[in-house]
Amino acid sequence: QVQLVESGGGLVQAGGSLRLACAASGRSVSMVAMAWFRQAPGKEREFVAAVTGSGGITSYVDSVKGRFTVSRDNAKNSVYLQMSSLKPEDTAVYYCAARRTTYISQHPADYGYWGQGTQVTVSS
């Protein structure tokens, strides 16, 4: 079982930055592929970024490329999402997710483990 806890959300002005963190615990968490999703009011949950179990491969949705960076520190069992140049349309609840392979997916249904979510609000 993998347990995930997100932190780092908050309120920022457009153009600002935030770093989200996801602390993982459980069996063999260092080799689990992990991802960030977000869900805005009235919208479906959207893939944001993912990283393989080794940290060697990352993937991003087009709308955040060049602004967001996903990384992991397996020694700390943590995954991070560095968000820069934030826009109001980035406002959403951000969720950390994990799946029982080392490879990434962009589909929420492929992830069996989820954190509670952390709110990111970007003001105009």
Short description:
Helices cover 0% and strands 51% of the residues. The protein has strands at 2-7, 10-13, 18-26, 33-39, 46-51, 58-60, 68-73, 78-83, 92-99, 113-114, 118-123.
Describe the structure in your own words.
It is a single chain. The model has no long low-confidence stretch (mean pLDDT about 95). By secondary structure, the protein is mainly β. The chain is about 0% helix and about 50% strand. It has strands at about 1-5, 10-15, 20-25, 35-40, 45-50, 60, 70-75, 80-85, 90-100, 115, 120-124. The protein starts with a strand and ends with a strand. Strands 2, 4, 5, 6, 9, 10 and 11 form a seven-stranded mixed beta sheet that branches. A four-stranded antiparallel beta sheet has the order 1-3-8-7, with no helix packed on it. It has no helices and eleven strands.
Q: In whole angstroms, how far apart are the ends?
A: 40 Å
Percent of residues in beta strands? over 45%
Outline type: globular
* Helix-and-strand structural type: mainly beta
Overall pLDDT confidence: 94
What is the strand tally? 11
H/I helix tally: 0
Helicity range: under 10%
Q: Please compute the radius of gyration using only Cα atoms.
A: 13 Å
Low-confidence stretches: none
How do the helices and strands follow one another from N- to C-terminus? EEEEEEEEEEE
Biggest sheet architecture: 7 strands, mixed
